[in-house]
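Translate sequence into structure tokens.
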Amino acid sequence: MRGRLTFLLVLLLCCCVVVPDVEAKTRRRRKPSTTQASRTAKPKADAGMTAKPKAKAEPPARGITRYDARLFGPEVPLATIVKRLGVETSGGKIPGARLLVLKRERRLELFAGDVFLKAYRVQLGPQPVGPKVKVKDGRTPEGDYFLCARRPSKYHRGLWISYPNLEDAGRGVESGLISAAQKDEIAAALAAGQCPPQLTKLGGHLMLHGQDPTLTNWLARAQRKGQLKIERGRELGDGNPANLEEVWDWTQGCVALLNPDIRELYDALPERTPVSIRASGEPTRPGPWPPKAVPAVPVAAAPDGGVPAAASPGAAEPSSPEDRTAGTN
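Result follows.
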């Protein structure tokens, strides 16, 4: 009897040890190895035969976050480009010049007639999406305008944009922001080639201008100390547009460039140069430099609905925002 009990006890202990071991082996068998998984995994589509092409990456709703150097320039002085392409000038100005601003792409394109000259990096305000509606909304207008005034600015140089235009004024009347009489004043100023009233509830004091003075002062200090060099053809405090990689929106609705770029435009653009501002568009990619010579660009007549050629360049220039309320855009 005692021997039988001893045998049953040994048998019971063996079962307790063997069964968990069998279960563990079973669990290990159930979990395929890495090699087995790779053998049974669904094969990837052949990239050259069945894979769908990747869709073109679109910039986020607010626009690009970094500048693609391949889409800007040529990174040579505008005067060199004009001379190389045989673009006609008058008194140092480009008579057929026109500007296209693409907000989402943060770029300003300069044309002489239909000839592309150069693409510039720009910065906008805190609300880059959507057209400007009212004062202090932080937006940049969208529509067709012209350069209605120019003067030095605390942002280095300032080229005033003829905002609001007739479409902006019409929306302002519909929304109750301005009166019909104010719209008539805007229309009269635009017809005369002058800047429209700047102190309505639609906002104003919108310009193409230079870089943030804080950046200018920082660069100037570093250049004086020898930490940064002043590049050939540049002034103290100038940033280098070719080195600008990240988008930094800091204005109150104006279109900002680095100082060397605004100086080029300030010196080359005649009064009442057309400025088209669009929410987005297909960038014009600069060609190889130096390009092949092209026929001289003739002086372009003002397009239908453009600014009258007989308008007085200096008539009714608005006071500078630095004189009163800088950035009441």
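Note: The first strand starts at residue 97 and ends at 102.
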